């Protein structure tokens, strides 16, 4: 048993940058939204550093970069609506599971652990993405960035999982790629585990002080 799992019965997984490399499709939708507004496109490398705080903040960062200043509320709403439209058309065109993810999820579920998903991505995209990759059956419950009033780094969605499954936070593990996952996990009283290969605004996630770090989720099984 991996030391991070000792005493753990419930795991909350982050999605983008932890289970799936979704930046190619996120960047495509951001660029289509920018083009709709006759603004210069951003490209994958920059979008990678902007992911992590949900779709509205992603679009806000893209507009701020394109305009050289923060957007007005009306322009942000228009661009966000265009982003949601485009991303909804093809959330899975180039999105892929990271190596080891499928084996890890299946192995952990087979051991009787309760697996859940807590993403800052809008909830509407969760089922199409998990379904497209064939991993929807691994999760007992999923929450998106708009499922509750608060999203990560707030601990609310993690505590909602702990409450729902009646598992005390000390027996819960948050697994993620960004400082928002680690901060939410710490604030919820969960153990925290980081993966270094995802998106963390260009900084190493180890700087957030997770309880553990694995190069691949396959190490868990
Ligand atoms: O949509 C985002 O900004 C990030 O989503 P995540 O919480 O699954 O990493
Ligand atoms: Mg993430």
Task: Provide a descriptive summary of the structure in words.
- There is one protein chain.
- By secondary structure, the chain is an alpha/beta fold.
- It contains 8 helices and 8 strands, in the order ββααααβαβαβαβαββ.
- It has 2 domains: 3-22 and 95-220, Rossmann fold (3-Layer(aba) Sandwich), CATH 3.40.50.1000; 23-89, Putative phosphatase, domain 2 (DNA polymerase, domain 1), CATH 1.10.150.
- α1 packs across α4 and α3 (55-67) crosses α4 (73-89).
- The model has no long low-confidence stretch (mean pLDDT 98).
- Magnesium ion binds at residues 14, 16-18, 52, 176-178, 198-199.
Name of the CATH first level of the largest domain: Alpha Beta
Q: What is the total number of structural domains?
A: 2
Sketch the major β-sheet.
6 strands, parallel
List low-confidence stretches: none
| Tally of alpha and pi helices | 8
Tally of DSSP β-strands:
8
- Using only C-alpha atoms, the radius of gyration works out to 17 Å
Which helices and strands appear, and what pairs or packs with what?
Elements: E1 10-13, E2 20-21, H1 23-36, H2 44-50, H3 55-67, H4 73-89, E3 96-97, H5 101-110, E4 114-118, H6 126-133, E5 141-143, H7 156-164, E6 172-176, H8 179-188, E7 191-194, E8 212-213
Parallel strand pairs: 1-4, 1-6, 4-5, 6-7, 7-8
Antiparallel strand pairs: 2-3
Helix pairs in contact: 1-4, 3-4
Function: Specifically catalyzes the dephosphorylation of 2-phosphoglycolate. Is involved in the dissimilation of the intracellular 2-phosphoglycolate formed during the DNA repair of 3'-phosphoglycolate ends, a major class of DNA lesions induced by oxidative stress.
Organism: Bisbaumannia pacifica
Pfam family, one: Hydrolase
